[in-house]
Design a protein that fits this description.
With 615 residues, the chain is mainly alpha-helical. It is 54% helix and 4% strand. It has helices at residues 4-19, 103-106, 111-135, 196-220, 225-238, 277-292, 297-308, 316-333, 340-357, 366-386, 395-398, 407-418, 422-450, 470-485, 492-514, 519-536, 543-547, 549-554, 556-568, 572-607, and strands at 164-165, 174-175, 245-248, 252-259, 262-269. The strands form 2 sheets. The protein has a 3-stranded antiparallel β-sheet with strand order 3-4-5, covered by helices on one side. A two-stranded antiparallel sheet has the order 1-2. The longest helix is centred in the last third of the chain and has 36 residues, at 572-607. The termini are far apart.
């Protein structure tokens, strides 16, 4: 049976599916007309009117997004555009970054050594002040007391100094405050025979000879030229020759004295002798007594001859042992290791033996002796380094040659230049540089023989065996060695030790605060007033006796030797740096000495006005 509704039910569905299209997302719905029916408007089929363009209204342009910069308003000042700053992490004020830091931050000196140096300086100042208050200043500057009824001791170079008036022609010779006679001699002194003019000429001749001999001896002590000139002029004024002119050089001396209608001039060579510390002390004491008028020219000539020709008070073995102590102590100061100190001591004894055997060699051959000693010392040191021993190349090489190091000569030359003694200062600097070249030649020859580069001198560091206390022990050993080797008077040992300790302590403190290059300025500034106060005390050593050993502790000669040796060893950079450092150190020492002399002179005027004058 056929079911008609089934067909009818299916047909409308198929017809509806065929008549109604599926909506498309891209097309608009459209009305499909049905046959046999009236078309009626469909709401979906209503056309949307397209707006016509208005001729009076312009078409809108496409909008472009852009930042609008507001313009300045009238009366407002437009600020200048600044570059955009780079963001940093620092807030607040910008602090510039410097390539270096303060010396106290970069210093590698152990704080134990710094504390010890500060304590040495403080204790030295407190001890000197206490000792001075307890004992008082020496009223006569260390001279023996006068007999009862004798005139008071005059001040050196002051208004109280007795001045002998020498008339041009005839008449008696008188002394202010003293009896007539030879240069103010005491009553009963035999007078020169002959006419007054002949006696006057004879006394002037003796005074000129004494001035020349005293000047020679003072030059041999290593005194600065300004000190020699001032001392001789005071001696001449005290002995009636106030118009005497003195011209001093490191190797010559000229004294000119107006006499009658002529000018008497005496010329002499100097600087060829090396005096021991006891001779230095005796010469300077004699010069001080002569400048005060306590010693007359004839007596002074006899005393001076005895001082210069005196023999050492100690044996050769004792002096050699003292030089061994000097070498060992200086090696500790230079930072030598456990093996460096005995090597330096043994080589120091060898140098002492060589210098003793060759003491009669003429001075013209001294240059060969210097180079020979440098060669003899350098060969064993470089052989030990070559074979692998832990030996440094500074302490055991420089310490045994300390007697040839021109540290005092170089620094005194710079002092002469600073005091406007140009010829003398230049000559002493040239002599010091020549001494360094001779030492460097010997070391360079030994380096070529052994096969160790000479440029390595001063580069190997084996470490300080005693830590920060090692240099202080070295200073003490060095002081004892100086006294033994140079035959200094026994009373000079405490003062020499004190001056050396103060010099080294000042150098340590100066190195921490100002840097290593100018550390010697503080050392020289500290030791100079102490040496002056020691000379002002009764029985104290003269200024140069305690002052000269300090130059070896401040080590300008050792630095110069390293620099010249590096130059000969073709290490240009190291040589230039070391030589410049040496030059700066010498200038710093000279400035420290001058500043210390000014400071010490002010203290001397208050505490010891009768003390010997340095400049």
């Amino acid at each position: 049976m056929t079911l008609p509704w089934a067909v009818e039910d299916v047909e409308p569905a198929e017809a509806l599916e065929a008549a109604t299209p599926s909506p498309s997302p891209s097309s608009s719905p459209e009305a499909t007309p049905t046959s046999g029916a009236t078309e009626a408007p469909s709401p979906d089929a209503t056309p949307v009117p397209t707006p016509e363009a208005d001729p009076l209204t312009p078409a809108p342009a496409p909008q472009v997004t852009a930042e609008v910069t507001p313009g300045p308003t009238p009366g407002e000042v437009q600020p200048t555009p600044l570059p955009e700053p780079t963001p940093t992490a620092t807030t607040g004020a910008l602090v510039p970054t410097w390539p270096s830091r303060p010396a106290v931050v970069e210093s590698t000196v152990p704080w134990g050594m710094v504390v010890a140096a500060a304590l040495v300086l403080v204790l030295a100042a407190v001890g000197l002040a206490w000792w001075w208050r307890r004992n008082g200043a020496a009223s006569d500057g260390g001279q023996p007391e006068r007999a009862a009824g004798a005139p008071p001791a005059p001040r050196p170079g002051g208004d109280d100094a007795p001045t002998l008036t020498l008339p041009v022609t005839g008449g008696t010779v008188a002394t202010d405050g003293g009896p007539s006679g030879e240069a103010g001699a005491a009553p009963g002194t035999p007078q020169d025979e002959g006419s007054p003019a002949e006696a006057l000429s004879a006394r002037a001749d003796v005074t000129v000879r004494f001035l020349v001999r005293l000047g020679e001896a003072m030059i041999d002590t290593g005194s600065p030229i300004v000190q020699v000139n001032s001392t001789l002029q005071r001696v001449a004024a005290v002995n009636g020759l106030p118009e005497a002119a003195v011209v001093t050089f490191p190797t010559a001396l000229v004294v000119s004295v107006p006499q009658h209608d002529t000018v008497q001039t005496a010329v002499s060579t100097a600087g060829s002798r090396v005096l021991r510390l006891d001779q230095v002390a005796d010469v300077l004491d004699l010069a001080h007594a002569a400048s005060r008028g306590d010693v007359r020219p004839r007596e002074g000539l006899e005393t001076l001859t005895a001082i210069v020709l005196s023999s050492p008070s100690s044996s050769t073995v004792r002096r050699a042992a003292g030089y061994v102590g000097v070498a060992a102590g200086l090696s500790l100061v230079l930072g030598g290791g456990w093996l460096d100190v005995p090597v330096a001591a043994v080589l120091g004894g060898l140098v002492a033996a060589v210098t003793t055997l060759t003491r009669r060699v003429p001075s013209v051959y001294q240059g060969l002796l210097v180079a020979l000693c440098a060669f003899v010392v350098a060969v064993p040191v470089l052989l030990l380094v070559r074979t692998g021993w832990q030996v440094g190349l500074l302490a055991p090489l420089v310490a045994p040659l300390v007697t040839f190091l021109p540290g005092a000569l170089l620094t005194t030359g710079v002092i002469d230049l600073a005091t406007r003694q140009m010829i003398a200062g230049s000559a002493r600097l040239a002599a010091g540089v020549m001494q360094l070249v001779l030492l460097a030649l010997g070391i360079t020859a030994a380096a070529g023989l052994v096969g160790v580069p000479a440029a390595q001198v001063g580069q190997v560091d084996t470490g300080q065996p005693l830590g920060w206390a090692g240099p202080w022990v070295g200073v003490l050993v060095y002081a004892v060695g100086v006294v033994l080797h140079n035959d200094a008077h026994r009373g000079a040992l405490p003062w020499i030790t004190l001056v050396l300790l103060v010099a080294y302590a000042g150098q340590v403190v100066g190195g921490v605060l100002l840097g290593a290059v100018v550390s010697s300025f503080v050392g020289a500034l500290a030791m100079t007033p102490v040496a002056m106060l020691a000379a002002a005390r009764r029985g104290g050593p003269p200024f140069l006796v305690t002052f000269l050993p300090g130059f070896w502790v401040l080590v300008p000669g050792a630095l110069g030797l390293v620099g010249v040796t590096s130059a000969l060893g073709r290490s240009t950079d190291q040589a230039i740096a070391t030589i410049v450092t040496t030059g700066v150190s010498m200038v710093a020492i000279s400035l420290g000495v001058l500043a210390g002399l000014a400071l010490g002179r002010g203290v001397q005027r208050r505490l010891a006005p009768d003390a010997p004058r340095i400049l």
